[in-house]
Fold:
Amino acid sequence: MRIKTSLALMTAIGTLPAAVFAQETTIQVWDEFGAEPMASAMEKIVARCEANTPGLKVDRSTMPMEQMHTVLSTAVKSGEGPDVFYSSPGWSTVGPLIESGALAELTEVYEAQGWRDRVQPWAVDYVTYNDKVWALPYEAEIQGIFYHKDVFEEHGIDIPQSYAEFVEATQALKDAGIEAPIVTAARPAYVLGWMESSMLGATMPVETLETVVLGHQSWQVPEYEEAVSRINELNEKGFIPSGVLGYSYDDMMSQFYTKASAMVLTGSWIVPNIDGNFPDLDVGFFAVPPIEGVEQRAPKASGGGFMLSANTDKRDMAVAYMDCLAEPDSAQIWLSEGLNRAPIVGVDPDAADLSALNRRVSEVVNEPLSAFNLYGILPSEVNNATWNGIQAMWAGMMSPEELIQTKQEAWEKAIADGDVIEK
Amino acid sequence: MTDMAIPVGEHGDSVVDTPEGPRSRGDRLLPYVFAGPALLVYAALVMLPLGHTFFLGFFEWSGGGPMDFVGIDNFIRIFTDSITMTAIKNNLIWAVLATIVPVSMALLLAVLLATQLPPGVRLFFSTVYYLPAILALAVSAIVWGWVYNPAWGALNALLDTVGLDGLERAWLGDPNIALYSVFVVSAWAYFGFCLIILLAAIQNVDPSLYDAAKLDGASAWKQFWHVTVPGIRNELNFVVLYTAIEAFRVFDLIYIMTGGGPFYQTEVIATSVYREAFVEHEVGYASAIASLMTIIIATLATIALRWRERTDPEAQ
Structure:
């Protein structure tokens, strides 16, 4: 009897999962996915990773990205921060984190875990600064014009192929009684950065932009003057709301969702919200069309990525979690259920039940040519000077020339302070 | 001063004569023993952080990483940085308005409530006027953000309805009026508090003083100026000082309603500190601005308290 009991016990122990015997390690993860459909999708990915990684336990906290930017550096330096966090991997955010010593470099992890083969090359480039990799990109985003297809059809307007046609179409909508055919917002100022990036994509060849940014050249060039002039023109022609400087991001989106404006200039992060909460809207996407002589490109970026705290004492388990996130199966859940695109190789958009808008956005994201998102490549002081300058220009307090001069002065100071990307 | 002679040394080394009578050294130390723990807590929670902030003002520091000593450069930069100077100018405008508008409104209404209305009605109105004060400023900011909304806000809709559509505007987006639009919310939020304090003070003024003034033929204005105002002097000083200090601490209303924009035209010192520390990652410079803010508030409070002591009839 005793022998039988012992055998039964040994058999039972043998069938228990290895996780029971592995020492459980809880890692703290901060991300911004508190709203559906991404909240449930991320929970599912976490459950998958916990099941597949012996000993891994993930303790997630969600908060808006803006709030995270405020507390992250201080929290990490004080040892109270997370082991892994999700944030914008653009230089405006990453630069100060690197400088403060809050961020762990991932170059060796990329080699050791084979992430270079698993993450799309453009996205690896996006999170590489001064030859070092700093994040696992998990959101491939583009910026441009989202428009109501039915409103365009009602007024007989086709998708514009050139900037001149874009102005013509917008004027036609205005003449048809739509007071502000394009809606944007000025609160917070970074919303204006999407417009600046999109206009640059339409007016400045990427090679010229690379020369300016990476070669630390002047912004006082005809291509940038063209972009600023086009931004100013939107206001002068009354294409955007007259009270745009009082518009918040939510005001902007409500004006678009209610069709008070036919177009909104924003990014692909709105797609899950449209698909989840406004399924009756028939929304399309096109990049701001280029002026003559410039190739069609939409600003593309990794809008968010997972990063490793420099002060984590659970580095191995934190890397194991990130490694699980970088698996195609995790990224497939992220697309199919979270409706969000992680730039991970091996994800099949056709296997996900995506809306027409989401498929269209995925197509553009996967196009080989793209423009730069300035948030990703310029330091925050330069971007803030420019975006607040656009507010001043629209308010009549600054001329386009003064705006460019303001940007240039901020740029020269950033170069002198060593706050810019070196190559 | 008293001209009473104080005997010295009559009770030996351990006892000292004081104006209040002979006291042992132990008695003299006792107040410090009682105050000591509170003083330690105050030093740890107030003086230490203040000192540390002032200390950080001498460094160029992003909030992490190396700290470079820059002497008084950050303090000098305050006066050469046009954005920070705009914030200081806006804060001064705000402080002047904050000590005049809500206090004047509250004083006027308190006099009307105290003199013109029966107690039941007075209680009703004072409760209604006090309601905004119980709302968190963040809630007030969000609600008024809806009122001011340029597309569907109640204010523009009202103007449109009454035929004043020419006055419609982006109340929070027009650089010329955005600061004042936010200030209206501040006045709305604070005047109820001032009203309650002043109303209680007016009701405590000795009625016989008014009777005497009336017998002397004093007009309503003279009764107000020569009886009411001196009678509520201390409370009036308090609300003026309180609103002035709050004016230099203003942050939440502006942060939520305008974020300091458009083009920094609604920046005040506190939003400037936040922007420099957490957006521009210039913690050293932000600390210098915060130190300046502390000095302004402390100076203001000291001047007000000294002035109050000097002009207090009971102290003379």
About this structure: DSSP finds 21 helices and eleven strands in chain A. Chain A touches chain B at residues 69-70, 73-74, 76-77, 96, 99-102, 186-189, 241-248, 251, 254-255, 260, 380-381, 384, 388-389, 391-392, 394-395, 397-398 (CB under 8 Å). Residues 400-417 of chain A form the longest helix (18 residues). Chain A has a mean pLDDT of 89.
